[in-house]
Every structure is written in structure tokens, then in C-alpha cells.
Write a structure and sequence with these properties.
Elements lengths: L1 E6 L9 E9 L5 E7 L8 H7 L3 H4 L6 H11 L4 E3 L2 H14 L8 E4 H9 L11 H8 L8 H17 L4 H8 E4 L16 H9 L3 E5 L8 E10 L6 E6 L4 E6 L3 E6 L5 H5 L1
Parallel strand pairs: 4-5
Antiparallel strand pairs: 1-2, 2-3, 5-6, 7-8, 7-11, 8-9, 9-10
Helix pairs in contact: 5-7, 5-8, 6-7
């Protein structure tokens, strides 16, 4: 089954779900779907409205997250799930379930982006990139992007199309595997020190940040980063960000961030040279 969300931002640890959609296909070929708009009880930032088009007034009469979340997990049952860039989507569902002490099944989670990349990367006539919109066009699916139920069908279409071109499905599934939900049973997957509240504010404000990060290939060197979001992972909560030293998106474990401060634009060139 496939799942897609629309949210108030890009940080599963602090932002909220405003739309859940899922499509399930049984072994017998039966297709069913789940869809629900959610009232987040917070203001939806303008920069996200430009993508999904949902405003607070559109959601005022929708339920808050607790009841729909229980309905969603009942709908999922024991079916493995796929999503495009699934670490983000599942991060919101996992965090919200943790907040309301709602149990989720020990399912395996897969990523259609990773799956397509495993098959097509460095191949002739590969797609220009592995965004959902690009892959949808590549497989011939007319996508109305950032409409959650449309994105779930696109995800399934991509997986089905890619599967036809892969002889060894076991290898592809191994490459597209992300995590097992049972790995999030520990509370330390979600909790982080209050000393990092200032970092949370910087992430939400989309400012450049300098990290004193103890780990990785350049251990001990100040890292200039462009924050993307704060996410739960089995090994602990992370800051997902573009490292301006390498140009790559990376996950920085919050427990390994010794200190942080806002990076002034005038100092950026100094840090990356």
C-alpha cells in the first residue's frame, strides 16, 4: 500500500499533518483507499500553502489528528507501506502516534524514490531526476502534484512500472527498504534537549546555520548548513540539512550537535572555502 501526506512544514518533529491519503491493494487485487483532511490547530505557513493549496479555513471543520490516525492504522493493517521520500511522510505519522500513545504495527517501509534510483541511476534513457512529478511523467501518469490521494496513486504507478524492468526484485526491494516501524519503540527516537529549542526556531525560519558537529567525515570542523527539517530516526532525532561544504543533503544526529549559531550570509564564503 502507498501513503502520502500534506503538512504544515518539513519537520516531522514539530510540524503537523493536514491531509492523509492511502491506497491499498490486496493480494487478490482489491483496491481501497483512505483519505482525510486534518485540522492542525496551528497556523499554516504561506510558504507551504503555495504547494498544497490548503488554508486554515479549509480545515476548520475537519477533525484533529487523533481519531483519523487510529482510523489510518486500522486501514493499514499488516500491509507493508511505500511512499516517495518515505522518511518524511512516515516521520509525521510515527511522531503523532507517539504523542497520542497509539500503537502502530511492526511493518517494513519502502521508498519509491530509492527504488527508482536503484534501477535507473546511470542507465541510458533514465529520468532527468527522481522527483515524484518527474517519475510520474516518465511512467505516463498525469499527476496533480501535492494532492495527497493523487500522489499515492503516482507512487504505486511508479513502483509497478519499475518492477517490470527489474529481474531481481529482491535486490531492488533491499535498496528501497528504509526502516521497520518497530525500531521506533524507544522514546529517545523523538525527544531532544531543550538546549536545541533555538535550533528548532532557526529550522522553522529557514536561516543558514553553523553547527559544531562531533561526527562524520569532517569531525571537529564547523559545518555550515541549510536546514530542511527535524526528523525522528531509529538511532535518534536528526537535523536533515544541506551541508554547504559538500552540497549534499545529510542527517545530523541532534545528540552530536555540540553547539550552533546563525550563519550570516557575509560569512558563508569564508566557511565553504
Amino acid at each position: 500500500m502507498a501513503v502520502d501526506l500534506e503538512t504544515t512544514g518539513l519537520s516531522p518533529l514539530v510540524d503537523k499533518i493536514i491531509e492523509i491519503a492511502a491506497v491499498k491493494i490486496t493480494e487478490a487485487g482489491e483496491v481501497s483507499s483512505y483519505h482525510q483532511l486534518i485540522n492542525p490547530l496551528i497556523d499554516i505557513p504561506e510558504f507551504t500553502i503555495q504547494f498544497h493549496g490548503l488554508r486554515n479555513e479549509d480545515l476548520n471543520n475537519s477533525p484533529t489528528i487523533k481519531k483519523p490516525l487510529k482510523e489510518f492504522w486500522d486501514f493499514v493493517g499488516r500491509h507493508p507501506m511505500i511512499a516517495h521520500n518515505s522518511t518524511f511522510d512516515l516521520g509525521y505519522l510515527i511522531k503523532a502516534s507517539h504523542d497520542f500513545q497509539i500503537e502502530f504495527p511492526p511493518l517494513d517501509i519502502y521508498d519509491s524514490c530509492r527504488y527508482a534510483r536503484a534501477i535507473y541511476k546511470n542507465q541510458p534513457n533514465s529520468p532527468a531526476n527522481f522527483k515524484l512529478s518527474t517519475l510520474s511523467q516518465y511512467v505516463g501518469f498525469e499527476l496533480q502534484h501535492h494532492v495527497a490521494i493523487e500522489d499515492t496513486y503516482a507512487c504505486l504507478k511508479i513502483m509497478a512500472h519499475v518492477a517490470k524492468e527489474m529481474v531481481d526484485h529482491k535486490v531492488a526491494m533491499e535498496k528501497s527498504f528504509v526502516f521497520r516501524l518497530s525500531n521506533f519503540d524507544k522514546n529517545d527516537c523523538f525527544n531532544f534537549s531543550t538546549r536545541l529549542k533555538g535550533l528548532t526556531d532557526m529550522v522553522q525560519s529557514k536561516v543558514l546555520v553553523e553547527l559544531d558537529y562531533r561526527g562524520g567525515s569532517v569531525n571537529g570542523r564547523i559545518r555550515p548548513v541549510r536546514p530542511i527539517g527535524l526528523m525522528p530516526l531509529p538511532q535518534g532525532p536528526v537535523l536533515f540539512a544541506e551541508c554547504l561544504l559538500t552540497g549534499m543533503n545529510k542527517s545530523f544526529l541532534l545528540k552530536k550537535i555540540k553547539s550552533f549559531q546563525k550563519l550570516e550570509a557575509s560569512l558563508l564564503q569564508r566557511n565553504v572555502t
